Structure formats: structure tokens, C-alpha cells
Amino acid sequence: MADPPGCCSTCATCLLCPYSCQWITAKKEKRKGLRTTKCDYSWFLFLFCVFLFTLVWLYFAIIILNDFHNFNEFIFRQRKLWLDWSLVLLIATAVLISYSSVLLVLALCLQLCGQPLKLHWVHKILLILTALVVAAAFTGLGIKWAEEWKSARISLQATGPFLHIGTVGGMTLLAWPLASFIYRTRSTGLRVFLLLVYCAAMIALYLAPLGITSPCIMEENQLPPKPALVGHRGAPMLAPENTLMSLHKAVECDVQVFETDVMVSADGVPFLMHDEELTRTTNVQAVFPDRTAQSTAFNWTDLQQLDAGSWFLERRPFPTVQSLSPADRNKTTEQRIPSLEQALEAAKQSNISIMFDLRPENHSDYQNFVNVTLGVILQSGIPLQQVLWLPDGFREDVKQQAPGVQQVYGRKRLKNEKEPVLHVNLPYQDMSSEEIRQYRQDNISVNLYVVNQPWLFSVLWCSGVSSVTTNACQVLKEMKHPIWLLPSSTYLMIWIVVDCVSFLIVIWAFVLLK
């Protein structure tokens, strides 16, 4: 191996120490026997693959933050333990990506300085463990949370153009250590192979925009109206979910619809509650320690004794809880489980619509639940067009008794639909941008849930969705424009400039290092 050009002894020693865990001077006579072998290059390749693997996982971790509250609720139902697991995920991911990044940078610098790539056995073990941990994370994601793969596909519509630019930049910088290695190695076959692989990768990257599509690549005058906001259980980042305080906070966020969940008490009173058990959002274990926490097993008098707000301050389901004012904190502790009648009255006074599921769908007395709930709606005096009916069970009976209620379907329209479907409510992963545009052209209102992150809201906005259900109404309310919007001509110019600059830098790197 040639002596490192332009690399001082101190610098080379400082690079070797953390990478090889050996304090060796860079003098030639001290480095005899420390030449880079094929095994060392294999470990460098493994290090590079682990870095890319963890980088992809970091991308996934950021994307699934939109839905992570669902994961927190799932863990609570299984283990009765509340923790914001997103913090654990981000910290662990940051440690893994930082470790592999530092090692990769050290290896590239060593290569540029002509130093041996002698990776210490401790680093080898840690890299294998890193790969196994990330592989286990991806496997768990595929088994327990498969819909997040669809979320990743949607995210590429928001990040694709920028990922392309970043990847081209990274591969362009890689030309320097690659050229250094190619000029030092004596194996002609290896030189040709590496050059072919690198050139093929760069050509693929230069042409990648041909396959990149995004609804936000459009002219400004083609941008659809901003989607309306539907408060998911109200404004759950600002107040305890499914309470009157949450409803009022949602109204302050300019939501047009209050989305909630309805159950019926043992004595026939419909009330707001999402979980089939009262444990997560009330103090039922303290008030009734000897009773089952099944929501429908309690009568209305017992339900009114429960505190439906203090849990919000204790468990802090969202980071926004810390920023609540003293007045809001006091109001939170006063919250009780509201009846559907109270919620309808509040919605009527605030002039917003109310959309709800009726739970549990598999209850033996579900038809009676439907009748009782419908009776409360008809007696409340709320304009029926402000009520959006989600439950599929006994829908035809509801249409007959209350024809003014808006029917919202949790499915896509069918080919041979007997009656026209005017409103659909679906997970955001279940509709493509093309389907959203088609529904919009056919005057079908599309509401997608649950949309919390601005990048996702931007993609759906550009796609033309009618409304989104969100936990973060206070964030999306402030968005006056999608995060980015590029005319196709501008994106074409950026693409050409980035590719040309990259090509020139790569050529310069190989010519200069020769």
C-alpha cells in the first residue's frame, strides 16, 4: 500500500485508534503487517450495508410517528402500561445510526489517507448486533403493523424528489474514496467490477426521476382547496379525548366535524367512550376496584362518578400536555364522561357536525344500541344533516327512521351500488392519489384518518382529499399551504442541474486523485 499522500502521522493515528482500537503510529515501519486484506474489505462492505440498513430504518421510524399513538394504545391494552414508545424508538434508532455513521466516516477517511481498514472485533460484534436489531424491527413491523408499508409508499410521494437529490449527493461524495481505492489496488478485475457497479448505480440515480411521482408536482393554480379538519375524539392533544373540553378545543381549531365513539350504558344511556374498558381514560380502578372495567357494564349513575380528565395530566399521551395553561389543567381535572345528548347539544351550539362509531359492534344487544342512539339524536333537536352516521349495522333501519342523517361508509364504492355513495371514511393508507382524484371528480366526499404529520397532510391536500381526521388539529389549522409545491418545469430543471453537477464532480474526483 502506498504511503498516504497529504495525511499527517497524527491524523492517521487518530483515525486508526477508534476504528481499529489500536494506538499505532502512521510511520511505514510501524505499519508493516497491517495491510488491508480481502477480509477487511468484506467487513467494510458489511459496515456500509449496515449503515444503509439503519438509514432506511430511520426513515421508517420517522414515517410511523404519524400513527404511533395507536401503538401506545395497543401496548396499554395488552400490558396496562402507558409509555410514549416513540421516544424509545427514536433514541434507539439515533444510537444505531450514529454508531454506524461514525464507523463509516472513519473507514472512508482511512481509505483516503491510505491507512489499513483493520476493524476491531468489538466493532464487528456490535455491527452484527445492529443488523440483527434492525432486522427484528422490520420483521415486527411486517407482522404486527403491516399497513405501515403502505404509509412508507405514500411518504415517498412527499420525500421522493428530495431523497433523490440526497442520494445523488451521497453517491457523488463516495467517488472520492472509491477513486482512491481503485488507483491503489493492483487487481484489475476488482477495479473493473467496482467501476461498473458504481457507474450503473449513478446512471440509475440520474434517471430515477422518470419513476418519481408526487401529487405535489403541479402548478399553483391547480392546487385543490385545503381539506376540512375532523377532530379525532375532539382535540386529544389539547384535552382528554371524548370529553366536552376536547370538543370545545376542537371548535377553537376550526374543525368542521367532531369525530367520536359511542357506547350504551347498562341502563340504556348512550355516552362517549372509545375503549371497551374504562381503564385507560378514567379512574375506574380507584372508584370501583372490585368491578370489571367493561364500559357497557356500568349504569349512567356509576359512569358519572368517574374522573375522565386526570389521566390526561398523569400519563401525558402527547408532548403537548406539558404546555397546558393552569386554567386548562384545572378544567381537565373537572372532566366527566359526557353523554351523547350532551355532545349533540354542544355540537349544535357550536354549529359543527358530529360523526361517530357505535361500539362494540359484536354486542348481542347491538340493534337496541342503534335504536336507543337514534332516539337520542331525534330528540336532541340537532339538524340531521349535522349527524354523520358511521355504523354499518342496521343501516337500512336508520335510513328509514332518520332519512336526513348523512350516511358515511367505511369502504370504497362498489361497481353495482344500489344507492349512490356520497361520503366515505377510510384509513389514509387505503386510497391512492388517483382514487382520491376520481372520487373528487364524481362528487364523493372522502375523509381519511388519522392524519397528524404536516408532510402527510400536504400529500393528501395535493391529491384533493375532502377532509382528514386528525389528532393535531392545532398544527394543521396553521398550515396555509402544502409544505412544498413544485411546477413540473421547475422540478425538471432541478433534476437536470443536480445530475450535471454530480457528473462533473465525479469526473473531477477521478481525474484529481489520479
From TrEMBL:
<keyword id="KW-1133">Transmembrane helix</keyword>
<dbReference type="InterPro" id="IPR030395">
    <property type="entry name" value="GP_PDE_dom"/>
</dbReference>
<dbReference type="GO" id="GO:0006629">
    <property type="term" value="P:lipid metabolic process"/>
</dbReference>
<feature type="transmembrane region" description="Helical">
    <location>
        <begin position="163"/>
        <end position="183"/>
    </location>
</feature>
<dbReference type="GO" id="GO:0008889">
    <property type="term" value="F:glycerophosphodiester phosphodiesterase activity"/>
</dbReference>
<keyword id="KW-0378">Hydrolase</keyword>
<comment type="similarity">
    <text>Belongs to the glycerophosphoryl diester phosphodiesterase family.</text>
</comment>
<keyword id="KW-0812">Transmembrane</keyword>
<feature type="transmembrane region" description="Helical">
    <location>
        <begin position="125"/>
        <end position="143"/>
    </location>
</feature>
<feature type="transmembrane region" description="Helical">
    <location>
        <begin position="41"/>
        <end position="65"/>
    </location>
</feature>
<feature type="transmembrane region" description="Helical">
    <location>
        <begin position="85"/>
        <end position="113"/>
    </location>
</feature>
<feature type="domain" description="GP-PDE">
    <location>
        <begin position="227"/>
        <end position="480"/>
    </location>
</feature>
<keyword id="KW-0472">Membrane</keyword>
<feature type="transmembrane region" description="Helical">
    <location>
        <begin position="190"/>
        <end position="212"/>
    </location>
</feature>
<feature type="transmembrane region" description="Helical">
    <location>
        <begin position="492"/>
        <end position="513"/>
    </location>
</feature>
<keyword id="KW-0325">Glycoprotein</keyword>
<dbReference type="InterPro" id="IPR017946">
    <property type="entry name" value="PLC-like_Pdiesterase_TIM-brl"/>
</dbReference>
<dbReference type="GO" id="GO:0005886">
    <property type="term" value="C:plasma membrane"/>
</dbReference>
<protein>
    <submittedName>
        <fullName>GDPD2 inositolphosphodiesterase</fullName>
    </submittedName>
</protein>
<dbReference type="Pfam" id="PF03009">
    <property type="entry name" value="GDPD"/>
</dbReference>
